[in-house]
Amino acid sequence: MLEGYVSPYSATAVERVAAADAVIIGRTNCDEFAMGSSNENSAYGPVGNPVDPAKVPGGSSGGAAASVAAGLCHMALGSDTGGSIRQPASFCGVAGFKPTYGRVSRYGLIAFASSFDQIGPFAHDTKDIAALYQVIAGPDERDNTSSHRPPSSPLEAGRKLKIGYYRHCLEHPGMDPEIRGHMEERIEKFRAEGHVVEALELPMADLFVPTYYILSTAEASSNLARYDGIRYGHRAKGAGGVEQTYEKSRSEGLGPEVKRRILLGTFVLSAGYYDAYYGQGMRVRRIIRNNTLETLSRLDLVVTPTCPTTAFGHGHISDPVAMYLQDIFTVQANLAGIPAISIPSGRHSNGLPFGMQLMAKPFDDERLLSIAERFSAA
Question: Which residues of the chain have pLDDT under 50?
Answer without folding.
Answer: none
